[in-house]
């Protein structure tokens, strides 16, 4: 049974009624971020029940020494931890001498929280009776500014309901935090300095080992009945890693006492003097004031939604799902800083460590290319180019030579930091996604300049890796790739995973083709790169030999490519015939049993058919889809979106819709029973693809946008926008037909269901 407490709403995530069992799940779902920092929806006041405290700063991490394998050659020495950052939101509250704590209140009524996705603001309200009998109403709003991305804002309001009250606000900043996820229970932060000045507090701490410095700051303003109050503050705590003030107010029954708390982080990634920078942020925010900061937030989010929104008419749950996914993607990464990337949990939790997986290239880049300026996607490609030396180092640790590059499965700085051998050493298909993203970027944007400037060096390193990783089988008289894990992590150490072999061949062919093109069109770049990489014609011939003779396992009986050599040796019991009590198998079965089963965690062969759709016929796709989908348990967040797109392509619309709902509401409905650990951010881009590429049928072929629009029977209409080469095309699909509207300065030709359609600026075209 999936959770269903989130109220359906077009623009908000809403929870009504306080339930201690749901606190950790809601902390994930109501998380907020602004691309530079983020936090789980922890309560500001004390909460003594089960909670998962989490605030995070983009780009700051800790190399937590691995517990296994580090003594073996080539094994990563650490697993990079996304750090729980110092807490700036904390406000202890006392009312008539009693601490406010929802876990100990004798009653909590009218509890409601709302994440207003349209405006990027998180609200919480409730009425409570404290153990001393005092009744209060509380309203809190919180947001992380998009315009000033080092700043967060809290407006905390308390109204006594059954008598006058003495209210004490005790706001603090605290660097004495720990990670839920730590290998050796080490502390990750070293306190450096604590300062106070005029209702402001500053705690500066530095990470051990990596030596990132962060100043966590706060500034407090008291209001009574909406009027600013000058209240003397007392310092009630000042230690090496914490500072806390106390403000006491006498509040009449029905009157509202408010604390406006500014807070956030200034970090050494961006500033030499983090305390000075924090004071400047406070001064600027104070000058603007709460009302204007809130208005700026609303305007900034309106601008994001103007381009990235997808509307769905007639299906509130589907609408809420896609907006939640788009909202979280924009909270996590806005493309302003090429040093940053998209972590699989974003700013919602610590699981998976690392800031970068292959998810970025395979799933996220299409969303950012189509809903932002192309520079954002180019920044994501540049991130990998800047880490090419590390990728070559990673490969060298495993014995590869001559500039072969193996990009990491998980990384913060380009170094591999994942410590499960079957993933670190075997899930090498991630290398292919890096190359595919370069191809995909050029296909979509038409900007070839990236390849001669940077991309070709990456492609050469990747091609060298695949050529060296392949083994010539005298038995098969072809090249094979042994001992791998494909995208389906429920099969480890297999031979000739179809997806891995196919993308390896494609990478070599694509690198070879780009070398020929650059030689003709950018001869000076070609000369520079071939000299830098010592690339010879003789080496290219070896590449060609491997690519042209790559082996792909195939079964004539079923007429399908096999997921790997031994797939048909398994007991092929379909998922539909599994007892429901056995699901999800990753929580019910031993790993040994999973590895011997036919069950597929996520699209594997079908991932290849998704990337290289135009290499296969629709009949081939249907045959492979019908063969593999019945064995797929979709226990990876990255699985339902690919299946939704392919089901739509095959006009299996009921399946496409079911998979769409599963990917869009994966966290809201907690399909995998793990949302309390954080949300699945990178797979959220797959939700966007499910609509645009699945139902909308959008593809780019021969520099032209193609559409094959379809619509689920559950919907009345849907619409989305695409920024295609600086021309914004709005596509609106209903059961009656499809409308195209162009925001641009010159006409564009699109292909709809195989027919040429010319769309002129501001001229509605209906097909």
Separation, N- and C-terminal Cα atoms: 42 Å
Radius of gyration: 27 Å
Broad structural category: alpha+beta
Largest sheet: 10 strands, antiparallel
* Helix proportion range: 25-40%
Mean pLDDT over the residues: 95
Q: Please give the count of helices.
A: 19
Q: Percent of residues in beta strands?
A: 15-25%
Which stretches are poorly predicted, pLDDT < 50 over at least 5 residues? Answer: none
Q: SSE layout and pairings?
A:
Layout: E1 12-16, H1 23-29, E2 32-33, E3 37-39, E4 55-57, E5 61-65, E6 78-82, E7 91-95, E8 98-99, E9 107-116, E10 121-129, E11 135-144, E12 151-160, E13 165-174, E14 189-197, E15 200-207, E16 213-224, E17 227-229, E18 234-238, E19 242-251, E20 257-267, H2 274-308, E21 311-313, H3 316-332, H4 359-371, H5 374-386, H6 388-397, H7 421-424, H8 430-445, H9 450-469, E22 471-473, E23 478-480, H10 498-521, H11 523-533, H12 537-548, E24 554-555, E25 560-561, H13 585-588, H14 591-596, H15 605-611, H16 618-628, H17 639-649, H18 653-664, H19 681-695, E26 699-701, E27 704-707, E28 717-724, E29 727-734, E30 738-743, E31 748-752, E32 755-759, E33 765-766
Parallel strand pairs: 27-31
Antiparallel strand pairs: 1-9, 2-3, 3-4, 5-6, 7-8, 7-13, 9-10, 10-11, 11-12, 12-20, 13-19, 14-15, 15-16, 16-17, 16-20, 18-19, 21-28, 22-23, 24-25, 26-27, 28-29, 29-30, 30-33, 31-32
